[in-house]
Amino acid sequence: MLREISAGGVVVRKGVNGWEVAVIEPKRAPDMGKNDKKRQKRILALPKGLVDPGEKPEATAVREVREETGLQASRLAKLTDIKYMYVRTWAGKERVFKIVSFYLLKYETGEIDEITPEMRIEVKHALWIPLEEAERKLAYKGERDVVKLAQKYLESHPEEAQ
Prior knowledge:
- Helices cover 25% and strands 41% of the residues.
- It is of the alpha+beta class.
- The protein has one domain: Alpha-Beta Complex (Nucleoside Triphosphate Pyrophosphohydrolase).
- Strands 1, 2, 3, 4, 5 and 6 form a six-stranded mixed beta sheet that branches.
- Helix 3 (131-137) packs antiparallel against helix 4.
- The radius of gyration is 16 Å and the shape is globular.
- The termini are far apart.
C-alpha cells in the first residue's frame, strides 16, 4: 500500500462578525454523463498538499495555503494529524494510506482567490467563510474535526490570535 504525507492549514482572520476561515473548492473532473447528484454538490475543503522531499510539514502548510488561496499566513499552533485511506481514481486504482498534519495559521497578507493560472487546475475557487459555519460546510469529517480544534484553540488563546 502506498503512503502519502501531506500538510495543510486552517487560516483564520478576525472579520467584522467574528472569526473567518479560508477554504477552497477543489476542481473536480467533469461529470462523464452520469446523473450523480453527489458529484454536483459543492465541495469545500481546507488547503493542503504533499510534503516535498526535505520540506518540513509546517512549511508545506504555509506553502500550500499560499498556492491554493493566495494568502500569506503565519503559524499559531499544530492542531493534529488526521489519517485515512483512499483509493486513487487514477493510476490503477491503488489504495493509499494518507497522513495530513494540520496547522492553525494566522492570516497576514494577500487577497483570497488570487492564485496562479496553473493552480486553477486544482482549485476552482478560494473563499472566506465564517469559522462557526465551517463545521457544517466542509465536506470531509476529518477536516470538520480539525476546525473544531481550531475553534477551541482560539477560545483558549485569544491573545495569540489578535
